[in-house]
Amino acid sequence: MTVQLTYFGIHLAFLLPPILILGRLAIRRDRAWWGVRPLSGLGVMIALAIVYTTPFTNRLIPVGVWWYGEGAVLATVWHTPLEEYLFFALQPILTALWLFQVRPSADRSLAIPRTHRLLGVAGGVAIAVVGWVLLGDTATYYLGWLFLWAGPVLALQWGFGSTYLWAIRRSLLVAVAVPTLYLWLVDRIAIELGVWVISDTYTTGHALLGLPIEEALFFLVTNLFVVQGITMYVWVLDRIGGVSAWTSASPRVPTSSDDR
């Protein structure tokens, strides 16, 4: 199938504009996160996204869980298009720049009850176990791999900071929901245009407003990774540095010590 809009065109039309807008807002707004701590956290998330997602896509694409329209991609490395690797970086940037506007934070100690840590780890492990079970059915193959892939990361994040994340849950919801809804729309448009095609064989057939439930969960989970990861990263650096995250609510005054 020949498509009018390519995968790179999706980046130019739907990802680059909001990134530029949100980036400008983050730089100019006093109340937005900016500086060494959040930006280095974003750098870590980009590196982890590329390293952790590359085996995932290169496992599922050859099986035929999804594929790309004729002429939709420039080239592939391993089994994954170059544009997909670029997306591994662009999605965290987009989500993080929105997160910087929301700036969820609470003045909480790094100390977390052991029970909370165990429950957080157990939640992530349970998701991975469900994924392992779902791999046994062709119709839940994509869903199974998604859960199996997401479970370990969620176990680490929830095990480390579940109490803190719960304390800021309302702002986290906003930070996750907005980019997720936007990327659902972009994904739905790309599928409709044939830029990529999701297999009927390896999916459940359930959809959310026309978007396969597996795709919807993918963007929800990956945005959760980014938001939770950067938020906890800044929280840890704030506590180690002895600076409360609440102090960033005051107007930003450029000084040599302003690494926020």
Automatic annotation (TrEMBL):
Gene Ontology annotations of biological process type: carotenoid biosynthetic process
InterPro entries, sorted: Lycopene_cyclase_dom
TM segment ranges: 6-27, 39-57, 85-106, 118-135, 141-160, 172-196, 216-236
Lipid bilayer topology: Multi-pass membrane protein
GO molecular function: intramolecular lyase activity; lycopene beta cyclase activity
Pathway assigned to this chain's UniProt record: Carotenoid biosynthesis
Name of the protein described by the UniProt record: Lycopene cyclase domain protein
Organism: Natrinema altunense (strain JCM 12890 / CGMCC 1.3731 / AJ2)
Taxonomic classification: Archaea, Methanobacteriati, Methanobacteriota, Stenosarchaea group, Halobacteria
